[in-house]
Structures are given as C-alpha cells and as structure tokens.
C-alpha cells in the first residue's frame, strides 16, 4: 500500500517524444484525467481504485521477516532506481491533480503491484497481458450498478413504477439482438429520461418522479404495438423492422417532446395531448421520417435525427418548436426542397 501523497513522487510516467514502439505504455489521455480527479475528490470516503502496476528499474532487495519467507521488507535504491508505471498512468495523473485541490488526501493509500524491470520488451508485454482481457462493461450495465448518478437512480426507480415498460427494457446490454423481447436498453431509457427532465424543476424530487412516471405511462398507453410485444403477439425484431417507435431515436425524441409539455403545462399528468400519438404513422416507410429518423432505409441516432424526429411529433401534437428546433427544421426543408 502506498500513500497517495507519494504516488506522484515515486511512480514515473514520462514518455513524451518517444515513438509508439519505444514506449511501454499508451500515451496519457489528459482528457480522462479531470473526470477521474473529480470522482476521487467527490467520493473521498468511498472511492475505489484498482492497484497500480509498476516495474522497478534499478537495484532492489527483498528481505524476508524472520521465520516467514512470504512477508518482509522491499529495499529499493531510490537514488539510482526508477519505478515505471505499466498500468495506472491515468490514476497517477488524477491523484496528482486531486492532491493540489485536496491535500488531505495525501494520507489515503492505494494498492501497488511491483515487478523487476526486465527491459522494454518485457514491459510492453506486461502492458499487453494486463489489458488483453479487459472488457469495458456496457453502458446499460454501468447504469444499472451506478448509485452515484442521480439520473440513473431516477431512471431505475421509474421502471420499478412502470412494470409494463420495464418488461421491454434490456438492463445489461447496450445493443439488442433480433430475438430479444426488449425494445429499448436501459441506456436508451436513461437518455430519454434525461431529455424529459432537462432544465425542468419541480418543488420536490417526488413531484419530479411523479411527472416523469406520468409522462412515460401516458406514452405507453398510446403505443399498442408495445403491448403486442409484451403479450407475445409480435416479436420485438418484427416491430423494430417495421416501426420507428420501437427505436431509441424515437424514445429520445419523445423525451424531448415531454420536456416541452412539462414546461408548457406545468401539470403532473399529461393525458390530454398525448392520445394524438396514436394517429402518427410510425412506420419506417412513412415519408415523414425520411431524412429524419431514417436515412437511406437505415435508422439513424444522431442529435440532428432526434431533433428532427421530435419536430414531427411536436407539430402533430400542436406544440411550438424552439428557435433551435425551427432553425434545424427550416434547414432540413430547404435541403429537401433543393433535392
């Protein structure tokens, strides 16, 4: 275990100017450091860091304790030795930055695994081996297990209150297989709920949650195809092949529409305008989605496609477009007319 205050002093990471084949590590991505630093500072009482792995380039000696060969003291000649990081350079940089803002973290400790340096080739192989089987969890699974992200907590709470929607949500994977019963991923529902609640505040979290639950419940009532999948009358794959309201771009767009409704009505229930959703032609082949949610026959999920899809829904419900939405709509129409 090494005190955080010693990490920047002991562990070296300075390979600037070296070619890729001369380095024993990937280049430091400084864009990742502020996020890790913020995580450490904001969760100083319960943060979790994996061990730093480093190699000792220099003289070192392990002196066993009397009667116990497995424990003892590692003596390193620090004047002439270097301890080079094999895995953990971003943690090191974040720790250094965090200590500048919160010096009291210096007495915290982090686990360290040390190897003797056997040359550049061995260090490069260690990096390859350490990262060989590292698999980043899906965004949906990360959200499922995340109890720090308030919106993730809200999204999961909403799904416990909306079992008819929860049955259609894939909680672990970020992509859906053709045979999956799910229509949406937890990640997609999270993003749509974020769009629903952005810049909208009620008097209490309970009112916020009730407003969000009321909106999604009202939307689900206008989507009979969702019920068809839930009861087994239609497969999710067949629905997704035919209709856009079973894709994340439409769910996200509905979240944007709901945000406008919440701000305009200030109501906790949104039953009045939403029945008009049933009269929208949700087929992928419908002309209204061409160039918006569907481009060259394929579903698209970009900021522009979400906004243009939301514009259609808003117009159908008689809701005004924002200045940015109107500007994008005008540009879309000019392009379509020119084509």
Regions with pLDDT < 50 over 5+ consecutive residues? none
Per DSSP E runs of 2 or more residues, the count of β-strands stands at 12
Q: What is the end-to-end distance?
A: 65 Å
Q: Count the DSSP helices.
A: 14
Share of helix, binned: 40-55%
**Beta-strand proportion:** 5-15%
Mean pLDDT: 88
Structural class: alpha/beta
Order of helices and strands: EHEHEEEEHEEHHHHEEHHHHHEEHH
How many discrete structural domains?
Answer: 2
The biggest beta sheet reads:
4 strands, mixed
Radius of gyration, whole Å? 27 Å
Biggest sheet, strands in spatial order?
A: 2-6-3-8
Shape: elongated
Protein name: DNA sulfur modification protein DndB
Pfam families: DndB (PF14072)
Briefly, what is this?
The protein has 339 residues and is of the alpha/beta class.
Task: Outline the structure in words.
This is DNA sulfur modification protein DndB. InterPro entries: DGQHR-contain_dom, DNA_S_mod_DndB. Pfam families: DndB. This protein is an alpha/beta fold and 339 residues long. The protein folds into 2 domains: 2-131, no CATH class; 139-338, no CATH class. Helices cover 46% and strands 14% of the residues. It has 14 helices and 12 strands. It has helices at 7-10, 33-42, 89-101, 120-131, 139-145, 150-161, 163-166, 186-197, 205-221, 224-231, 236-242, 248-265, 303-317, 323-338, and strands spanning 2-3, 11-12, 52-57, 60-65, 68-76, 82-87, 109-110, 112-116, 169-170, 184-185, 294-295, 298-299. Helix 2 (33-42) crosses helix 3 and helix 8 (186-197) packs parallel to helix 12. It is elongated. The model has no long low-confidence stretch (mean pLDDT 88).
């Amino acid at each position: 275990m090494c005190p955080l205050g010693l990490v920047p002093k002991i562990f070296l990471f300075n390979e600037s100017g070296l070619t890729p084949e001369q380095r024993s590590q990937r280049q430091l991505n400084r864009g990742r450091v502020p996020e890790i630093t913020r995580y450490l500072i904001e969760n100083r009482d319960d943060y979790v860091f994996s061990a730093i792995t480093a190699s000792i380039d220099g003289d070192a000696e392990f002196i066993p304790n009397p009667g116990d060969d497995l424990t003892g003291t590692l003596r390193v000649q620090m004047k002439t030795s270097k301890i080079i990081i094999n895995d953990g350079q971003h943690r090191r940089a974040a720790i250094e930055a965090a200590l500048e803002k919160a010096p009291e973290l210096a007495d915290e400790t982090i686990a360290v695994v040390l190897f003797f340096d056997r040359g550049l080739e061995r260090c490069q192989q260690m990096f390859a081996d350490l990262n060989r089987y590292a698999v980043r969890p899906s965004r949906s699974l990360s959200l499922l297990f995340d109890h720090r992200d308030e919106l993730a907590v809200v999204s999961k709470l909403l799904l416990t209150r909306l079992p008819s929607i929860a049955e259609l949500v894939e909680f672990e994977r970020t992509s859906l297989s053709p045979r999956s019963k799910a229509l949406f991923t937890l990640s997609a529902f999270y993003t749509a709920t974020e769009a629903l609640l952005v810049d909208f505040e009620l008097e209490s979290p309970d009112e916020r949650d009730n407003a969000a639950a009321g909106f999604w419940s009202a939307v689900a009532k206008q989507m009979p195809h969702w019920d068809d999948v839930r009861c087994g009358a239609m497969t999710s794959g067949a629905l997704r092949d035919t209709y856009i309201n079973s894709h994340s771009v439409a769910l996200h767009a509905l979240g944007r529409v709901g945000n406008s409704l919440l701000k305009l009505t200030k109501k906790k229930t949104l039953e009045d305008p939403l029945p008009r959703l049933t009269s929208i032609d949700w087929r992928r082949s419908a002309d209204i989605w061409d160039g918006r949610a569907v481009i060259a026959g394929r579903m698209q999920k970009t900021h522009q496609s979400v906004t243009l899809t939301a514009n259609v829904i808003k117009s159908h419900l008689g809701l005004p477009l924002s200045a940015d939405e109107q500007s994008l709509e005008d540009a879309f129409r000019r392009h379509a007319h020119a084509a």
